[in-house]
Amino acid sequence: MRLLFKQRLFSWFDSYDIYNESEEIVFTVKGKMAWGHKLEISDRSGRAIGMLEEKIFRFLPTFEMYAYGNYIGCIKKEFTFFKPSFNIDVNGWQINGNFWEWDYTIVDSLGLSVATISKQFDWTDTYVIDVYNDEDALSALMVVLAIDAEKCGRD
Questions:
Q1: Per-residue model confidence (pLDDT) at position 17
Q2: Please, which residues bridge with residue 106 across strands?
């Protein structure tokens, strides 16, 4: 499944539409008023299915991930001097790649690719997320959203 994560040109809060290869909206992401980032993810029918919430008052950014009301894991930025690095605690996944240039891969505990992420430059930022198992799409999207939120918070 290929997802296209397109940021809206003008938005007061974090707001994104996530499209499939046929340019159909698969997910909608809306920022909620909160301390730190809080993003609600809805399916194509408008039903809330996921939440990404930044934990505040942490030395390094930490985002908790919820799917269908249940906690599924978190992603934390690790302390490094030069190259951004993230620790992910969901499904035994790891992240490898270059976060500055937005080319990275999510792999499972066996080292098999779960998703690859790359960035396209246009009027708005567009991230291409190739997810190898449709069931992992929501969790992979939340990982990408957390890394994007951390980067926006840093910039």
A1: 87
A2: 95, 115
> Helix, strand, coil: what percent of the chain each, to 5?
15, 50, 40
Give the C-alpha separation, 5 to 128, whole Å.
Answer: 6
102's tokens: 């937005």
- For residues 66 and 46, give the distance between their C-alpha atoms in angstroms, rounded to a whole number: 17
Bridge partners, 113 (sequence order): 107
CA distance 100 to 84: 7
pTM for this predicted structure: 0.85
Higher local confidence (pLDDT), 154 or 111: 111
Q: Which of 7-11, 28-32, 110-114, 138-142 has the lowest mean pLDDT?
A: 7-11
Nearest to 94 by CA among 120, 73, 125: 73
Question: Cα separation of 151 and 27, whole Å?
Answer: 21
